[in-house]
Amino acid sequence: MGAGELPDAALYGDEGSNTLGNLARVVPLALPHLRSLGLAHAARFDGTQTGTPRGAFGRMAEASPGKDSVTGHWEIAGLVLDRPFPTFPHGFSRELLDPIESRIGRRFIGNVVASGTEIIDRLGQEHMDTGCPIVYTSADSVFQIAAHEQVVPIDELYRMCEAAFDVAGKSWGIGRVIARPFEGTPGAFRRTARRHDYALTPSGRTLLDALTAEGHEVVSIGKVRDLFAGRGISRATGTASDAEGMALVTDEVRRGGRGLVFVNLVDSDMQYGHRNDPAGYAANLEAIDRWVGSLVPQLGEDDVLIVTGDHGNDPTTPSTDHSREFVPVVAAGARVRAGADIGTRSTFADLGQTIAANFGVPPLAHGTSFLETIRVDHP
Question: How far, in Å, are 1, 306, 334, 379 from residue 301 at the CA level?
Fold first, then answer.
């Protein structure tokens, strides 16, 4: 979810990107719960806002170069990168591919920049005929391998990706190798929920490390565990959909634990942003809004809900890639000051530093806490 292009968006080909603003101009958005918490104040997506929000609000800029999920999540957790992960706008070199093909005993087809749904539609039949896995990349630092589950069993696909990660990740510094299994027949291929990400280990101490070192539980829901290579995670549950992720968060709130629950709701990005589907994106965002409306009344006295993004993904622009944007932030809970404006933060790491301060763990290397701006000590 983006809230308008960053000053350096032109360097990434993202001029004019504004995920929420452009979406609102194309599709009428019914987001009463997120609006009431301050989303429209944070993202400024439909004109002048009046009244005092029930929550705290603001927006954050990404200080790290790049616009991928690993960079965004790491920065939220307090780790600001000084150089981007490598990208491959013209595909991968033979120097990279040859040792991987030698290890897996198959040759690749594809080797282009493409959307995941488009490339399986285009090359799925050839893959089924030859058994050759499809390799592709995007504007992000990713090495993606797609294979039909009836042609390449899922365990074999995972082994291929592990072999690829030894080369592409550990030797070449590519941010992620992603297993992209699919199923179906030509003309009706669809990706399955058994995607798996192999990510580099964070290059420094993160919020998750700081919390678990002090005995606080960190619960990962969705692909968060993969993005941190499992480090700093106490418990992890994968998800097949946003609906499943939201239900798991609700379960954690009802459980009443004391720690960090970190969830990535991926469908707006994967299902709709990358497919340039504004209507689907809007419908999914409205589903998230309804869930937020049901969740806030269930929060415990000391619970804080924070909703933000890790990059933009504007479904209204010609690009199907992530977009270099500000991200909105809204926070809710009995101890959150209504109408608190955190302004425009210079780094996502401010959020990680705020959470570190909330739990009283040693400060992170990057970021400035806004806890005192939003906190009410006695609800």
Answer: 28, 15, 6, 7
